[in-house]
Specification:
Layout: E1 7-10, H1 16-27, E2 31-36, E3 48-52, H2 58-72, E4 77-80, H3 95-105, H4 107-123, E5 126-131, H5 144-164, E6 169-174, H6 182-185, H7 198-213, H8 219-230, E7 236-237, H9 242-252, H10 255-265
Parallel strand pairs: 1-2, 1-4, 2-3, 4-5, 5-6, 6-7
Helix pairs in contact: 1-8, 2-4, 3-5
């Protein structure tokens, strides 16, 4: 009797890490479903079944998940990859902008997990992988709300893993550093800017763009995600290169040298 293919759901496959991850799961022989906000505007991905789903909308998520279950009767892996970003000083970033960011990066993750968990609990197995960031454990100037959203995802993931492992379900985090994706290249800037921050914000924004432009393509992150989903469980996975180095520096080096390194990376004195 042949082994059933792993049924994998990846959110946010229109581009970037989500798209690369979905493609890699296909290469691993999985039955892959990728979510997009609008199927008509989304380019097809070979071997991936696109599902229209807006993770900001509860009903949309429920419809999408139920349509997958109707076809497969199970979901083995959930990859929460869809996300948003924002650049701006904390003082000039509005509560409304923070709420919109959290609606995707945190509440969208929570909504999708809550839609999938009943099926994983029933089948007594599953793996959930949440895409965090090195900013989930490190600060970054002018990205306070984004960093806060990733810190929230980290706390949610660790707590959830404690709660669901008795059902055969495990939760992991993947924490990439700069990656060459449209999300980072086209990151929006806070709407109501304060002139006192203009000079430093401009320097930091340019440093972010420079780092993104020379960053690796999302394939390395995708490979880490697939390993986190299909390999032996551990809570945190950092892609090879800068992300792994930053994780080690944060863990083993004194705070002052780490802080100085961060400021240097972003062009700050």
């Amino acid at each position: 009797m042949s082994k059933l293919k792993n049924v994998v759901v990846v959110t946010g496959v229109s581009s970037g890490i989500g798209r690369a991850t979905a493609e890699m799961f296909v290469k691993r022989g999985c039955d892959v479903f990728g979510t997009v906000r609008n199927i008509e505007k989304s380019a097809p991905i070979s071997g991936v079944k696109l599902v229209e789903m807006d993770i900001r909308n509860e009903e949309s998520i429920q419809r999408g998940v139920q349509s997958i279950i109707a076809k497969t009767q199970r979901i083995d892996v959930l990859i929460n990859s869809a996300g948003a970003s924002l650049i701006g000083a904390t003082e000039e970033s509005s509560v409304a902008e923070g709420q919109a960011l959290f609606d995707t990066n945190v509440w969208g993750v929570l909504r999708t997990i809550q839609a999938v968990l009943p099926y994983m609990r029933e089948q007594r197995s599953g793996r959930i992988v949440n895409i965090s960031s090195v900013l989930g454990f490190l600060p970054a100037p002018y990205m306070g709300l984004y960093s806060a959203s990733k810190h929230a995802v980290e706390g949610l993931s660790e707590t959830l893993d404690q709660e669901v492992r008795e059902f055969g379900i495990r939760v992991s985090l993947v924490e990439p550093s700069f990656t060459k994706t449209n999300l980072d290249i086209n990151a929006p800037v806070a709407a109501e800017l304060i002139s006192a921050y203009d000079s430093t914000r401009g320097i930091v924004s340019q440093a972010i763009q420079n780092n993104v432009q020379k960053a690796p393509a999302p394939d390395g992150v995708a490979n880490t995600v697939v390993h986190a989903a299909l390999g032996a469980w551990k809570m945190r996975h950092t892609p090879k290169g800068e992300a792994s180095l930053l994780r080690k520096l944060r863990r083993f080096m004194p705070a002052n040298p780490v802080e100085k390194g961060i400021r240097k990376t972003f062009g700050m004195k």
